[in-house]
Design a protein that fits this description.
Helix 1 packs parallel to helix 4, helix 7 packs antiparallel against helix 9 and helix 7 packs across helix 10. The model has no long low-confidence stretch (mean pLDDT 87). It is elongated, with a radius of gyration of 24 Å. It is 71% helix and 0% strand. The chain contains ten helices and no strands. It is an all-alpha fold.
């Protein structure tokens, strides 16, 4: 008697898979709704802060003030996202919000840089907000290694720093049109410091490494603008060095307090 071969399958297998796919789609749609609201807040902040390129330095503090309630709204949307994704593994859906997280961190870095560069403060000129400061401002943990929970990653922070350099390089040119000639020299020092810091990083992320390599072009642009200002006698030849010394003095005073 010939052996009977069974080729039938249990259709319940696909019914279960279909159900799981539909549940996943529901979760993703709920996440997209939160991200849509967050993106609206980020666009408002960006639109407000981008006016720094066209207003005189005296107006910058007003722009910073206007963004504060919007930042709070964005933080609220972020925590709604945290609650929605809490029941699931972090890395299952984190690719959905990486762009928004990088943009939010960039805007915090930009707003902080403007605050510390245009407003009277004891913080050194051109001071960069640390990843710890950003995490504290958003009230979320940073760089979790053993806990599977929503957090701010180092890669997101580094991407945001590069975006900040790109924005400040643009500000160098526009500051000149506002006859704010010292600002470009301060930015030039900042951009060079960031470039030097990135050169010692061993970046494994291909996209981040490519963007980091592109920093040299922003350094070149900063040097060109600084050179033009110096040869036209719009700034003193040693203004960049004076800016660095002033930043170091403020840092030392803060440490002694």
């Amino acid at each position: 008697m010939a052996e009977q071969v069974y080729s039938a399958i249990d259709q319940d297998i696909f019914a279960t898979v279909t159900e799981q796919i539909e549940q996943d789609l529901v979760i993703r749609e709920s996440i997209k709704e939160v991200l849509k609201n967050l993106d609206k807040q980020l666009k408002q902040i960006s639109a407000t802060l981008s006016r720094v390129h066209s207003v005189p330095p005296s107006e910058v503090p007003n722009l910073i003030t206007k963004t504060q309630p919007i930042f709070e709204a964005a933080k609220s949307d972020l925590h709604e996202l945290v609650e929605k994704t809490k029941p699931y593994p972090y890395y299952k859906y984190n690719g959905m919000w990486q762009r928004e997280m990088q943009n939010l961190i960039f805007l915090i870095l930009f707003e902080t840089w403007l605050s510390r560069s245009y407003l009277p403060t004891t913080v050194p000129v051109n001071a960069l907000a640390t990843i710890e400061e950003v995490g504290a401002r958003l009230s979320i943990p940073i760089n979790l290694k053993t806990e599977d929970a929503f957090h701010l990653t180092i890669e997101e922070y580094l991407h945001a720093i590069i975006s900040l350099v790109e924005e400040l390089t643009r500000l160098m040119t526009n500051a000149v049109t506002q006859r704010d000639f010292k600002r470009p020299m301060l930015i030039s020092t900042f951009v060079k410091d960031i470039h030097s810091a990135f050169q010692v990083l061993n970046l494994k992320n291909d996209g981040l490494r490519r963007r980091g390599d592109g920093l040299k072009y922003h350094v070149k642009r900063a040097e060109d603008i600084g050179y033009d200002l110096i040869v036209r006698n719009l700034v003193d030849m040693g203004v960049e060095e004076k800016a660095e010394e002033k930043a170091e003095e403020k840092a030392e005073d803060k440490m002694q307090e």
